[in-house]
Amino acid sequence: MPQRIDLCKTSDVDEGTAIKVETGDLVLAVFNLNGAFYTMDDLCSHGPGSLSEGPICDDVVECDFHNGSFNIKTGEVVDPPCMIPQKTYPTKVDGDTVYIEV
C-alpha cells in the first residue's frame, strides 16, 4: 500500500514558482503551475543544480547550474546538456495540503 507523504501547504508555493522540500531520504522540488502542483527530484540529473531554484517558463524549469531544462509535468529533458529525465511523483492536494504517495 502506498505511503502518503505530506510536502507543504498550497499557500507555501506561489503560482509560477517552486520550493525545495526535504522529507526522509527525498529532496524534492514542488512546483505550482496555474494552481496545479507537480513534484520532481530537486537535484538535477546532470549535476549539482537545484531545480527548485531555477527559472520557470510555462511548464519548463531550467537548472540554475548549467542551463539544461526539464518539463515540469513529465520530467522529460527539454534542453541539453541534460540527458536523463527527472523522476516525477504524482502530486495530489487534500484541502490545503500538497502530498505524494510512494
Characterise this structure.
The chain has 102 residues and is mainly β. It has a single domain, classed as Rieske [2Fe-2S] iron-sulphur domain (Rieske Iron-sulfur Protein, 3-layer Sandwich), CATH 2.102.10.10. It is 0% helix and 47% strand. The protein contains no helices and 11 strands. The strands form 3 sheets. The protein has a 4-stranded antiparallel beta sheet with strand order 2-3-4-9, with no helix packed on it. Strand 3 and strand 4 form a beta hairpin. The termini are close together.
Provide a short characterization of the protein structure.
The chain has 102 residues and is an all-beta fold. The protein has strands at residues 4-9, 18-23, 26-33, 36-41, 56-57, 60-62, 69-71, 77-79, 88-89, 91-94, 97-101. The model has no long low-confidence stretch (mean pLDDT 96).
Strand content: over 45%
Alpha-carbon Rg, integer: 13 Å
Poorly predicted ranges: none
Largest sheet: 4 strands, antiparallel
What is the overall shape?
A: globular
Number of strands: 11
CATH architecture identity: 3-layer Sandwich
Q: What's the helix count?
A: 0
Provide mean pLDDT, rounded: 96
Classify the fold: give the CATH topology.
Rieske Iron-sulfur Protein
Spatial strand sequence of the major β-sheet: 2-3-4-9
H and E order: EEEEEEEEEEE
Q: Percentage of helical residues?
A: under 10%
Question: What is the assigned CATH homologous superfamily?
Answer: Rieske [2Fe-2S] iron-sulphur domain
